[in-house]
Write a structure and sequence with these properties.
393 residues, 7 strands, Beta-Lactamase, binds ligand C2E, seven-stranded antiparallel sheet, 2 domains, alpha+beta, binds succinic acid, binds fe (iii) ion
C-alpha cells in the first residue's frame, strides 16, 4: 500500500494519524496503534516497541503479520519477557544509547566496523527471518530516551522483504517525536490513576493493595477464557485486557465516600449502615461519568455493576442476566471469591471447600453460570494469583 502514496499524501496521512493518536488515552492501546500505523506507513511485516525501564529495554509490544497468521492467539506471549541492556552490543541498545536512528538493509550482513550485532535469539525462538530493519529512538523534549521503536522487513508489492527507504526514516523520526509526547502524557495519567487506587487503599488498610491486584488478575484471566470461548478478535481481547486491569482495580474506589465508622466496623453492619455502604457502587461510577476514554467507560461500568446479581436481586440497578455488562459479571465473581477466601475486619476467612461450594451453589443465582464454569476450569491459575499477591499480616 506504501507505493500508492506520493510524499504529500503521506504527510497528510501522518498528520491525520497524529491527530487520531492524540485521542487514544490508554498507553497500551496507544502503543499498539502507533506500531500498527507505523508499519502500515512503511509496509513493514513486523515491528516492536521497547520501553526503557530500569536501564534496560523491555520488549513491550510486538506485532508480526507473518507469525500472526501462523498462530493468531499466542504470538505475543513468545516475547513477553524479552529484555535488552542499553549498550552498544545490540541494535536496539545502540539506538537507545546514541539516541540516533539506524537503518539496516540486511541484519545478516553487518559491516565489521559496527559495535553491535544482530541478536538471533528472537528469530530462533519465533521461527522468523529478520532481514531489513529500521530502529528509531523515542526521545522526549527533555532529551530523555524513553524507548525504541523497531520495524522489520519492509516488503515490496509482492510481499518480498526489501530495504527500508531513506524517506521512511525522516518521516518516522518526525512521527516518533509526536508519539513520544503522547506516551508521556498517557504514562502520567496512569500514574495518577495508580495514586488514586493507593489513596482508596489507605482508607481501608486491612484490605490493602493485594485485594485489588488479585481481583484485577482473576478478572483478566476469566475474561481471556470467556473471550476465547465467544470468539472475540485477538486485537479486541488484548485492548480490553489492558484497560480491564486498571478498571477492575478501581471497582471499590467509591468506598472513599464511605465514613470510617462504617468501613472499618469490626462487626456486622446495621441495615442503615449497609444502605449507606451500598452507595459505594454509584459513588464510584460517578467519578468516571462522561466516558471520556475507554478506560473511563469501563471503570464506570464496573464500579456501577459489580454488585448486581445474575438473578436480578443485586444492587444498585437490579439488572438481570446478560443485561449486566460482562465486566461487571466478571468482577462480581472475582470480588466475592476474594472477599470470602480472605479475612476481613468483619469476618474470618472461609475454608476453600466452603468457598468453592458457595460458587457452585450460586451459579445461575448470584453469578453468571458460564463464568463460574470458566473460573473453576482455570482454578490452578487463580491459586497462582493468590500466591503472587498475598495479604500482609
Ligand atoms: P467486600 O468486603 O469487598 O465484599 C464484597 C462482596 O463479597 C460482598 O458484597 C458480598 O457479596 C461478598 N461477601 C463478603 N463477605 C461475605 C460473607 O461473609 N458472606 C457472604 N455470603 N458474602 C460475603 P456486599 O455484601 O454488597 O458488601 C459490600 C461491601 O460492604 C463489602 O465489600 C464490605 O466492604 C462491606 N460490608 C458488607 N458487610 C459488612 C459487614 O458486616 N461489616 C462491615 N464492616 N462491612 C461490610
Ligand atoms: C485515560 O484515559 O487513560 C485516563 C482516564 C482519565 O482520567 O481521563
Ligand atoms: C536487536 O536489536 O539486536 C535485538 C532485537 C531484535 O532482534 O529484534
Ligand atoms: C456482553 O454483555 O456480552 C457485552 C457487554 C459489554 O461489553 O459490557
Ligand atoms: Fe464493592
Ligand atoms: Fe472488593
Amino acid at each position: 500500500m506504501n507505493t500508492l502514496f506520493n510524499g504529500d499524501d503521506k504527510l497528510s496521512q501522518l498528520l491525520k494519524i497524529n491527530d487520531e493518536l492524540n485521542h487514544i488515552k490508554d498507553i497500551d492501546s496507544l502503543l499498539d496503534a502507533i506500531l500498527y500505523k507505523t508499519r502500515r506507513l512503511t509496509n513493514a511485516d513486523a515491528g516492536s516497541i521497547f520501553l526503557v525501564e530500569k536501564k534496560a529495554l523491555n520488549f513491550s509490544y510486538v506485532q508480526n503479520d507473518t507469525l500472526r497468521q501462523r498462530d493468531p492467539l499466542n504470538n505475543k506471549q513468545i516475547y513477553s519477557s524479552f529484555s535488552i541492556p542499553v549498550d552498544e552490543k545490540s541494535i536496539a541498545g545502540y539506538v537507545a544509547l546514541k539516541g540516533k536512528s539506524l537503518k539496516i538493509d540486511n541484519v545478516h550482513k553487518l559491516d565489521n566496523t559496527v559495535p553491535y550485532s544482530f541478536n538471533r535469539s528472537f528469530d530462533e525462538i519465533a521461527g522468523y527471518t529478520t532481514q531489513s530493519m529500521m530502529t528509531i529512538p523515542l526521545i522526549t523534549t527533555r532529551s530523555q530516551v524513553i524507548g525504541v521503536m523497531q520495524i522489520i522487513n519492509a516488503r515490496d508489492d509482492l510481499g518480498k522483504p526489501i530495504p527500508f527507504k531513506e524517506s521512511d526514516e525522516s518521516y518516522l523520526n518526525f512521527f516518533a517525536g509526536s508519539a513520544t509526547a503522547a506516551i508521556e502524557k498517557a504514562k502520567m495519567t496512569r500514574e495518577m490513576i495508580l495514586r488514586m487506587i493507593k489513596m482508596a487503599e489507605l482508607r481501608d488498610p486491612k484490605e490493602t493493595g493485594a485485594h485489588v491486584n488479585r481481583v484485577a488478575s482473576y478478572s483478566i484471566e476469566i475474561f481471556q477464557k470467556w473471550a476465547e470461548k465467544n470468539e472475540l478478535q485477538y486485537k479486541d481481547i488484548k485492548n480490553y485486557k489492558d484497560i480491564l486491569r486498571i478498571s477492575a482495580m478501581l471497582h471499590d474506589v467509591g468506598k472513599v465516600a464511605i465514613s470510617d465508622v462504617i468501613l472499618k466496623k469490626p462487626a456486622k453492619l446495621s441495615d442503615e449502615e449497609f444502605r449507606i455502604m451500598k452507595t459505594h457502587a454509584y459513588q464510584g461510577a460517578k467519578l468516571f461519568a462522561g466516558n471520556v476514554s475507554d478506560l473511563d467507560a469501563l471503570s464506570y461500568e464496573i464500579a456501577y455493576s459489580h454488585h448486581e446479581r445474575w438473578d436480578g436481586r443485586g444492587y444498585p440497578r437490579r439488572l438481570i442476566g446478560e443485561n449486566i455488562p460482562i465486566a461487571g459479571r466478571i468482577v462480581a465473581l472475582a470480588d466475592v471469591y476474594d472477599a470470602l477466601i480472605s479475612a476481613r475486619v468483619y469476618k474470618p476467612a472461609w475454608k476453600e471447600t466452603e468457598v468453592i461450594g458457595m460458587l457452585k451453589q450460586e451459579a445461575g443465582h448470584h453469578f453468571d453460570p458460564e463464568l463460574v464454569g470458566i473460573f473453576l476450569s482455570i482454578y490452578d491459575v487463580i491459586k497462582a494469583i493468590r500466591n503472587k499477591f498475598p495479604d500482609k499480616e
